[in-house]
Amino acid sequence: MNRLAPLSEEPVNEEEEDNINSSKKTNSWRNWLKTHFSLLFNKKSDLKVLLSVSSSAEYIIQHFTAATGCRKLEGKVKNVYATGKVRMAMVDELGSGGSSAAVGPTGVSQKGCFVMWQMVPDKWLIELVVGGHKVIAGSDGNVAWRHTPWIGAHTAKGGVRPLRRALQGLDPVAVSAVFSSAQYMGEKRIMGVDCFVLKLSADQTDLADRGDNTAEMIKHVIFGYFSQRSGLLVYLEDSYLTRIQSPGTRPTYWETTMATKIEDYRTVEGVMIAHGGQSTAIITRFGDNPKLGPAITRMEEIWTIDDLAFNVPGLSMDCFIPPEEVQKYYPEENLDWGSPLHHP
């Protein structure tokens, strides 16, 4: 296996980069992968194939960390603060009546805003206000939780996971960590950009942890699309399928697919951070009434980042303590929420 070429630590600006140099870098980058993936066709050794796939995914992440410059943050950034604006709209694609015609928007688009705090390594909190409603979600590193106006505070099943909004180019360190164990799936052109595709799949243990007596998570898959030219994450897609069944009822399946276009990368303290994008969520319910067919709803969101800062003074562990309702029903052993475990 040939020695990998060293990667530049400087962020890549696609608009300003010289076309000739860019073409050379892109071709070199593509040729490296094609050379290594020729093992799939020219070699019989399964070990060499596996090593080739693994090293390709690893190299894509190295390219991403170099392009964003996020290595500068490791060991130096303790917390992150971000504010932004959103515009959301709900669209019914197909009603439960089974009509094949799409239904128009169910209401006007709603404007809103959000604020997000993160503290290394696994603590985060986000407040989103849209159309007069506030939704809060957080993690203290041990338990993730949500608070909505319609069901109040409740824990999120399964282990603590990164905030998805942070994976939309806001936290390149989290992106590189999450996709470090991903599988290389090949090349794909999306939105006019030639990309390398990495895939992550939740294992059975994680899926089981996120279920209960009435709900079973069947799958959760994430795809990350990294620009071949710049190395940046430009598209994120994930989907999960859940089966819900109460005693004496038909099972209902809920499939949610979210896709996010990530753009407007800007430099913040020497690190490339995405400052805008567009997300689409498609929610499909089926199985409970086969005669009526599936009910499909699409939600669209346009988001922008107004401000982002590292190492904000005054941000402490107290900001990430779950609500009292979550503390009361915390599923693990009785933890002292005032102990050093939660307050350094």
What is the structure about, briefly put?
With 344 residues, the protein is α+β, with helices and mostly antiparallel strands. The chain contains seven helices and 13 strands.
How would you characterize this protein structure?
It is a single chain. The protein contains seven helices and 13 strands. It is of the alpha+beta class. 20% of the residues lie in helices and 41% in strands. Mean pLDDT is 80; it is low at 1-18, 96-105 and 332-344. The protein is globular and about 55 Å long. The chain has a 13-stranded antiparallel beta sheet with strand order 6-5-4-3-2-1-13-12-11-10-9-8-7. The chain has helices at 19-37, 39-42, 46-68, 164-167, 172-178, 204-209, 324-328; strands spanning 79-94, 110-119, 123-130, 133-140, 144-148, 152-155, 183-190, 193-201, 215-227, 233-244, 252-268, 271-286, 295-310. It starts with 18 loop residues before the first helix and ends in a 16-residue tail after the last helix.
CA-CA gap between termini = 47 Å
Secondary-structure element order, N to C: HHHEEEEEEHHEEHEEEEEH
Structural class: alpha+beta
Radius of gyration: 22 Å
Question: Which spans have pLDDT < 50 for at least 5 consecutive residues?
Answer: 1-18, 96-105, 332-344
Number of helices: 7
Shape: globular
Tell me what portion of residues adopts beta-strand conformation. 35-45%
* DSSP helix fraction: 10-25%
Order of strands in the sheet with most strands:
6-5-4-3-2-1-13-12-11-10-9-8-7
Largest sheet: 13 strands, antiparallel
What would the average pLDDT be, to the nearest integer?
80
Strands, count: 13
